[in-house]
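This part of the workshop introduces the protein records we will be handling. A learned vocabulary of local backbone shapes supplies the integers on the structure line. Getting from the letters to the tokens is the skill we practise here. As an example, a complete record with its sequence and its structure tokens follows.
=====
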Amino acid sequence: MPTGANTPAASERLRSGLFAWPAILPFAASAAAGLATLELVRRAHFEPARYLASAAVAAIVVGWALAQRPELLPGLTVEEGAAARPTLVATIVGVAVGAALLVPSLILLSGLVLRGRFDCESAGTDIERRAVSRRAAGPSARSRCSPSRSVFP
């Protein structure tokens, strides 16, 4: 006798949950986003189509989660599956420390890219100035943006 999430009873519960009130909205939104995506691709508007395709996938995931309510897994509600308070506090502290390390680096990288100081092509006169100084220094000196060494592969 099968047990767990693959039983006919669990399948029927999920199937009925998919077409119940809260879960049907994300599935309808996913269908609308999918149709709009197809139309945008037909008209060659690829950038907005990419965002709508992502929204369609996200709506399916949200609909699946709503169809599972109130049990996340068979026999396990969200309240029963929640971690203990010390675990939640440690997770929040870890995310905060990670964000404190990562966000300034991303801001610096974004600033370098937006100012054009990260890529060699937009450096222009800086490359010419380095080429003159490299010729004066001899053949062993190499510019940061020389053709043999690229910033990007």
About this structure: The chain has two domains: 1-82, 83-144. Strands lie at 71-73, 76-77.
